[in-house]
């Protein structure tokens, strides 16, 4: 056996979900993934989105794939950085939510749909409310009423009071 392959261990995943969750994508079966447990990086075949034709794979092609991964010729995915952690969190949330909706659609409608409907109604009410302050016909503006043409009509009581004050002032001045 080659010296480079002496430290490589081969494993088998019982389900495609485990490998797909590790790769944060949907991997068709059968497929090959190289995992470096020290750096938590993994390597995929260049055409990983296509299933492997088992009849066409040979020991030589698998050996070449492993050597390409060890030599850094394959693109490395994953790792333990902050961005990779955020990607993992978003992926786990999205797959968990999708699994919840697919397994319990009625409950998901109540748990997710009802709050979304309430928030939507509140947003609509806040953003689309009528903000104009229309003055109703006959509503008082100061001491005058507005008629249909928009002209001021002085209240008769106010006009009489104003005339009475004018007459009283006129008598005092004489």
TrEMBL record:
The lineage of its organism: Eukaryota, Metazoa, Spiralia, Lophotrochozoa, Platyhelminthes. Residues 142-156 have a biased composition (Acidic residues). Residues 142-174 are annotated as: Disordered. GO terms for cellular component: endoplasmic reticulum; membrane. It is found in: Membrane. PANTHER family: PROTEIN DISULFIDE-ISOMERASE TMX3. This is Transmembrane protein. It is a single-pass membrane protein.
